[in-house]
Amino acid sequence: MRGRALTSVEAIRSLVREAGLRVTAPRVAVIQRLVAAGGPVTHAEIADALAPDGWDRATLYRNLSDLTEAGLLRRTDMGDHVWRFELTAGDDAGHDGAVHPHFVCTDCGGVTCLPEGVVELHAAGRGVPRSLRAKGLEIQVKGRCDRCA
User: Fold this and answer.
1) Domains present along the chain, CATH in parentheses
2) 111, 89 in Cβ contact below 8 A?
3) Is 36 helix (H, G, I), strand (E, B) or coil?
4) pLDDT attached to residue 42
């Protein structure tokens, strides 16, 4: 499942099936939208993008929840109390499902996945909390994006 490019509907259908979920049109549409987004997006952004196709907000939210529970998506709060969803499989940035750092624009609120190696965390040293050695930490870098700068 991990490291698979989600470039076709059949690859998405297979991914959903392997996760133990029933393949439905809304699930495929949500994953296609997340692939196109290339990074974390909110439920509202997904709903706005898929509204022309006739998908209602409640259906999309249920599917986001199901896909997250199945481990195909990650749900993250970037500090603004808004959940954002991103794929844990088929990641073009090379994260291969791993938790990775994000850049959050303090002006527009845009979120971008940062490539591997851009942020290094040194968890050893005096005064560094032991929890920094734990897996599953989320690192966010905040500032003004190029568009807002």
Assistant:
1) 9-87 (1.10.10.10), 102-143 (no CATH)
2) no
3) helix
4) 94
Could you tell me which of 62, 53, 104, 97 has the C-alpha nearest to residue 82? 104
Residue-level pLDDT at 96:
53
The string of pLDDT tens digits covering residues 44-86 is: 999 999 999 999 999 999 999 999 999 999 898 887 888 999 9
Q: Give the whole-angstrom CA distance, residue 132 versus residue 144.
A: 26
How far lies 11's CA from each of 5, 37, 46, 101, in Å? 8, 17, 20, 27
102-to-3, 7, 77, 118 alpha-carbon distances in Å: 20, 23, 11, 10
How many angstroms separate the Cα of 121 from the Cα of each of 49, 52, 61, 99, 101?
36, 43, 34, 13, 11
